[in-house]
Each structure stands twice: as structure tokens, then as C-alpha cells.
Amino acid sequence: MKLVIGIVRPEKANDVLEALYRAEVRGLSVSRIQGHGGETDYVETYRGTTVKMELNEKVRFEVGVSDGFVDAAVDAIAKAARTGEVGDGKIFVVPIEKVVRIRTGEEDTAAVTPVF
Amino acid sequence: MHDLTSLPMTLAAVKSSGIDSGDTAWMLVATALVLMMTPALGLFYAGLVRAKNALNTFMMSLGAMAVVSITWVAIAYSLAFSKGNGFIGGLHNVFLRNVTNGPRAGLHIPELVFVCFQASFCIITVALISGAVVERMRFGAFLLFAALWACLIYAPMAHWVWGGGWLQHRHVMDFAGGVPVEMASGFSALAAAVVVGARKDFGRQAILPHNGVYALLGASLLWFGWFGFNAGSALTTGMQAPLAFINTLLAPAATLSTWMLIDYLRGRKATAIGAATAIVVGAVGITPAAGFVSPMSAILLGALAAIPAYTLIVWRPRTRLDETLDVLAAHGLAGITGILFIGFFAQASWNLTGNGLLFGSPIQLGRQALAALAAPAYAFCGTFILLKLMSLVTRIRVHEHDEGRGLDVSQHGEEAYTRGEGAILIHPEHAFELEYEGSAKYSFPEGG
Lengths: 116, 448
Prior knowledge:
The structure holds two protein chains of two kinds. Chain A is α+β, with helices and mostly antiparallel strands. Chain A is built from two helices and six strands, in the order E-H-E-E-E-E-H-E. A four-stranded antiparallel beta sheet of chain A has the order 2-5-1-6, with helices on one face. The radius of gyration of chain B is 23 Å and the shape is globular. Strand 4 (about 50-55) of chain A pairs antiparallel with strand 1 (about 425) of chain B.
């Protein structure tokens, strides 16, 4: 079991969602976050106050998958989120110690979708 | 010091000059009411787009106020209202040459008031078209479009019905702008949507209104301003102004009721965004007819106007046409409904001008039908050609990358909903102490 964390551009979030569904990865969480990678800062001006925006809006996907689906999930996120410009985001894959599905009490591989 | 002895003389002078104080006072107020409609429209449109485009959408309306006001007094007013041929006015009033505080011929208000009142119509008409191209048109290109459209499309069409043009000679009845405002904006919006093209996300993902309350408040303020728009179009306090006023109350109310009923029959729920749209549709429908039909006819018109507009709004998103905020349905179709309705229901006993088919004058329907053919054709073709020519010399839409980030950041360098996290102040010695004293948490040393 792995937790796949994909941090992507907000405007690519729908594409990623669609790609994950096409890859038959079910069950995920999405949150809006702010972050800073290697992209150049952009400047905004509010009535004489000029500011450099160091944090960019991103969307974070968290997908718990069984081992056989890690590559499929990573591929789906990477392909759908890529524009080729700096600021496309990152994908982290981290091991999971334990998973529990609250409704049924199922654990681990049985609790992440899809079962493999 | 007031010289009381001169007062009667002043009054006498005013009387002989042909200015009526009541008319003038009402028209000043009506003009201000109409001027409020453009920011109200900005609010309505801003609520209907995504959060990342809210400022840009509002700014298109403000941009129209900026550019069209100047264009109007520079040239467009003259092209619409000075003596010319049947198609377009002349250049006698360019830069307000020969325009004075004296009465405009045939009216009892100073021509300067008339210039302002008509300017406010041209401004909002240009702003209306922005609804077709929000979330992707380059801001600078829209401003250029605004100035050119005011001169090339609005001015001739206003001349046709109000400035002594060919439709006026054929006795077409258009009280407050079915031709130059509603059909012109609706069919120009269609052309603009075709030339500028769909948003990159259109048809691929759900694009939802980001703030329904803005849309409701904007539409409600539009209705409020519309009393100045329609009742002001009497250009006097007498006769048609009260009729137009009550019709502006009744027709949108009837549309709103009908719309909620259709909503309920289709989905068992009366929707709020639908209600906001219905207000606009009803007010548009009554616009050309406001001073010509009876109050009971206005209720019927309001109810009728809902049907074609509702149908198009349901059908349009299933096509490839990204006429984003449905200007064609709300203004084009509702405008046609109103213009044709006059042909049936105009009543000389109410308007002292002429009857429609149902009151013994079938020829009026033919005249109205002529306007309902000519106005859409000219607006669509003119706008199509104008934007095609513009696209030869300038980019009219933003790069796809900027469209993704949103036009607020890419066109204006601002966001509508900022949190300030991660924002680093530049040149703190200039701005910091003055504007943000005591909120040092928003600033930290660069690189620190």
C-alpha cells in the first residue's frame, strides 16, 4: 500500500481527476493548498502596494492505492498535470503502515481501492 | 447675492428658452439611474464567472464606462444624433460642437442632458457584449473593441430608430432600445463568441458561477436602474413616462414568475441564478415596448419573453457555442420578442402614437418585423467583420496559459480574493508605514 500525493496546478485538477478515473483508481481526497516550488514569483499591485507572490495556489491529491496501482496512479497524475512549464508540481509516493475503512472495519489492502 | 427682482425674468427666460424644469430634473435623475446599470451589470457578470476572472469581468464593464463615455462625446453621439442620411448621422456635433445648454430640438431638456442620457445607453450596450467573451478576451483588445463598436455599430443603429434614420422614417416603434441596445448587443455577442472562440475548458469541465449573491444583487440593481432606462426614454415627465415606469415593474415581475414556474415544472426547484436571469429577460422584453403597450399587455409580454430565452439558455450549453453568459438569449431573443410584441399590442389610447395588429393597424407588425430582421443582421455581420479585422492587427484573446491562471492575475495583476499569505512587500519604505501600520505580520525581510 502506498499513499500517492500529487501536487498540481489548480487549472489541471479536473484533468487529473479525469485521468485517475480513467486509470480506474477509486477513492481520493483533494485539498486546495498554497506552495512554493522553483517557479518565478509574480508581482501584484494593489493601489500603490506592490507585492511579490511567493506562494502559488495548488491542488493536492491524496490517493491510497494497493502496490499494483501505484504506477498507474503516478502516471495518470503526471500525464494529466504536465504543461512543461515550471510550476507543474510534484508527486510523492510514501508507504502506509495501516489503513482502516471506517464503515466496514476492513483493513489495509482491503480498505484501499482498488483491491489488487 | 440673489437678486430677487430678476427671478421672474429668469423664469420667463427659461420658459421662452423652451427648457422645462420638471423634465430636466427627471432626465438628470434617469441618466444617473442608467449610469448605475453598468456597474450593476459588472456585478451580475462577475458573480456568474469563476473566482479567478471576477475582477476582469467587472473591469470590462468599468472599461466600457471609461472608453465609451469619451468616444461618445468625441464622435459617436454625432454619428447617432446629428443630421445625416438614413443610415448614419453626420459630423455636426463632433466633440460636442454646436451642443449647448439650450433645448434639443423637439424636447424641453438641455441638449447636454440628452447627450449624457444617450451616452449611458451606449455604455451599457457595449458592456453587455462582454458577457459573450468573459474569461478569455484580452482586456486591451476589449477596450479597443468598445470604442470601435460604439461608433460603427451602436451609433448607426441608434440613428436608425431615434436619430432620424430609415427605421424611424418607416415608423418603427422602439421606445427604449430594442434595436440599438437589446438586439444589437445580443447578436453582436453571438458574433463575438464565434470569432473569439470558446474557453479552453468549455464543454470539458463544469464551469460554475462563483458567487450567486453577486449575480442576484447585480440583476436586482439592473432592474432598479431600468426604471430610469425605460421611463427616462420618454424624455419628459409627461404621457409615456408613467406608463413605461409601471410596465418596467410589471413585465420583469411576470417574467420572474413564469421563469420560476418553468424551473419548478422542470426540476421541482425555483433557481436563484435563473431568477437573476429572468429579471434581465423581462426588463429587456419590455424595453422597446415600455411606453407603447398597456400595463396588462406588459404582463403578457413579460410572461411570453421568458419562453424563447429559457429555451435557448437550456439548449445553448449543449452546443459548441460558448456565448458564455447568454447575452443572445437574454437580450437578443427577448429584444426580438419585445419589438414584435409592439406590432400586435401597441395601443394608441395608451401611447398616442400608434396601434398594433390587434388594435386595427396590421401594417405596424410589418414595420416591427423589418426592425427584427435588420437589427440582428447588421449587428451580427458588423461585429463579426470588426472583430475579424481587429484580429489581423492585434491578439484578441489571452494565451492559453494565462487563461488557465485566470484573467485577474494575467490581465490586471490582482486577485479578487487575496489572503496575503506568501506575499512579500516590494519597496516597503514607500508603502509600508503609510498603509499597513500595525500589520507587520504581512511583511518579512526578503530572503529572510
